[in-house]
Amino acid sequence: IVIDKPAGMVVHPAPGSPSGTLVNALLAHCGDSLSGIGGERRPGIVHRIDKDTSGLLVVAKSDRAHHGLAAQFEAHSATRRYLALAHGVIDAADPRLRGTPGVSFEDGQVLRIATNLGRHPTDRQRQAVVAQGRHAVTRARLIERFGTPPSAMLVECRLETGRTHQIRVHMAHCGLGLVGDPTYGGARRASVKALGTAAAAALQAFSRQALHAAHLGFVHPVTGQALSFDSALPADMQDLLDRLRAPS
User: Fold this and answer.
1) How confident is the model at residue 136 (pLDDT cuts 50, 70, 90)?
2) What is the dihedral of CA 63, 77, 227, 50, to 10 degrees?
3) pLDDT at residue 33, rounded to an integer
4) pLDDT band at residue 31, thresholds of 50, 70 and 90?
5) What is the pLDDT of residues 66-79, one digit of tens each?
6) Is 236 a catalytic site residue?
7) How far apart are CA 236 and CA 59, in angstroms?
8) Of the residues 50, 52, 91, 239, which is catalytic?
9) I need a labelling partner for 165 at 20 to 30 A (CA). Which of 61, 81, 208, 209 fits?
10) pLDDT score recorded for residue 64
11) CA 76 to CA 65: how far, in whole Å?
């Protein structure tokens, strides 16, 4: 089953979120027809997206499906594309960006970020780029820039790996923190001079990380059929995008 999760919904029960989670909804909707591999707390859960990230994820309804989907995520053959609004702009000519460890550019001005990710050394609730950690690769492509000079952008991020908070940490590592991200976005303020008063205020007021899981593709683990799913931007991100596009 493929779910289009709203922002604000936790995927599985945890301390502080015992109910109202995606797992609770799945159990109510699917009953016992979910894979048991994840146990009682995570039945059928193959992968997750953060509470305040919206968009697509797939859940397994049998153990066979779970194993087949997990193998695709492990082999990086499942495709996941996210849309994000971020501070700054991707520019291959930016020496600061080119000098960031783990950063390179591929054909088509695609930004490739390859680092190790692990727990932050002093804040256990956060992830960080670390020397010893799990290998993570994100590719980011500029779609649209906003401001004069450009100071915000719509970007497409493609996951090769799927580590906790990967896009959020990698974009912040490049100095391109996501709009509204309370953990990794830093104290960066929107530029009124570059964007205009209304757009800068809307950017500043956005209350969650502006990240949406827009595309999910995989091979059906039982039938072998190639499947592809797309989700439009949620209303809050679309409204912010419209405000950024409006004449200042």
Assistant:
1) very high
2) 70
3) 79
4) confident
5) 999 999 999 999 99
6) no
7) 25
8) 50
9) 61
10) 93
11) 17
- Dist. CA 38–CA 18, nearest whole Å: 16
| Closest of 206, 210, 204, 201 to residue 233, by C-alpha | 210
Residue 53 · residue 212 · CB < 8 Å: yes
Residue 227 structure tokens: 């499947």
Assess contact for 27 and 34: CB atoms under 8 A. yes
CB-based contact 191:134 (threshold 8 Å): no
pLDDT in the model for residue 137 = 97
More confident residue, 210 or 191: 210
> E-assigned strands of 76-146?
79-87, 103-106, 110-119, 127-129, 134-146
Side chain identity at residue 137, one-letter code:
V
Distance of alpha carbon 38 from alpha carbon 28, whole angstroms: 17
- Encode 54-78: b = buried (16+ Cβ within 10 Å), e = exposed: bbbbbbbbbeebbebbbebbeeeeb
Residue 40: what pLDDT?
65
* CA torsion, ordered 31, 32, 38, 39, to nearest 10 deg: 110
DSSP assigned state of 126: S
pLDDT higher at 7 or 15: 7
Residue type, 100: T
Q: What band does 224 get if pLDDT is binned at 50, 70 and 90?
A: very high
Cβ proximity of 152 and 180 under 8 Å: no
CA–CA gap between residue 43 and residue 62 (Å, rounded): 10
Cβ atoms < 10 Å from Cβ of 206: 20
